[in-house]
Amino acid sequence: MYKKHPEEKMLACQYMGPKTMVVNSVPKPMITAPKDAIVKITHCTVCGSDLHMYAGDLDSAMQKGDIMGHEAIGVVDDVGPEVKNVEKGDREYSLCDRTNPSKEMEGMWGHRLSGIFGYTQLTGGYPGNQAEYCRVPNADLILVKAPKEGVSPEQLLALADVTTTAWHGNELAEVGKGHVVGVWGCGPVGLSIAKLALFRGAKKVYAVDPDPRRLEIAESFGCIGVNVREHPDVSDYILRQEPHGLDKGIEASGFRSAQSWIQTTMRAIGAEGDQSDTVSHVIKATRKGGNISLIGDFFFTTNQFPIGALMEKAITLRGGQLYAQKYHPYLLDITVKGEYDPSFVFTHKGEPYAFSLFALPFRYKFEDLLWGDTDFRPLDDFENIPKMYKLQHEHGMPGGLKAIMATPFGRSLGK
User: Which of 6, 220, 240, 346 would you call most buried, defined as having the most Cβ atoms within 10 angstroms of its Cβ?
Assistant: First the structure.
């Protein structure tokens, strides 16, 4: 998908099979079409949706050696002759490409969605930006110019996908002042949805997840945490608290989050591709005439979908990939103004600085050393990205969410 440099190489994270990500040296991309830009990546991260590929659920749509990633920021290194609004040296972060040649997707769904960097052959097969360089087609449309001062790499990287996706979830559910909201899934996107729902004026937000660490983060925002291990019939539990039901329900966990043995078994034997457990609970817990948005990824078909309840309760259900270009100016503005900080999603702080244990303030405990509450490097190294995939997939990421990784170029900038 790009013209390869005949001599120069770069490091890139490649998919080599289920649960096998490898950082290899590959040819550096060159300008391939007149509207291209080449971005020299400074920072990147692993998206929760990247884990679908890591886990092997989308293996049939992958090719060995595909370059991963669609969340990154960097500096423009080169531009094609027809690029008008992007210049070499600009600080940029990338959004999705609108061009997708996949006939398979059109056959499945009747239409093709936009291309997405590093996200299967179904979305165009574009090499991703978990690499030192990335070719960006249609650069004037895709790249978003970022301020050179006043906003951190963590904030920009969170804005590249997580925060815009979270805002999209709120928009689709029409979350506003005084609403009672339920969010299923407290990963980086789900927690951002919950935090932004409160920002938009929601009266109450129920945050649903099995991970106590993530629920603690939600509660720190002012949400009401609901642990599904303690309340497996979560919709009934919420209805006991809110007899009229939720005004807005948002599913942010996706097709792999089966809870019941029936759904788990059907997915295991290939009788369905997507689980419907979480969606069923959202529909049951949402009031008559309420709104539901699906932000967690769903790709295939599911069984036991409560279509009757959806119809008879007159619920409006919407879903879809985010409209990043539409939302980013406002979200960047409130971030720069200090009204909202999206960077909380980066809970992994890298390796600790060298320090004397005896020099630590008395308030630090052993757990603090494990979970990063002391003096740690702010970033991890790009070369460690396979480890980050494994940690994130196994819910072993320090702090419970995700890591930000700096390329050698990013580290050289000292930011």
Answer: 346
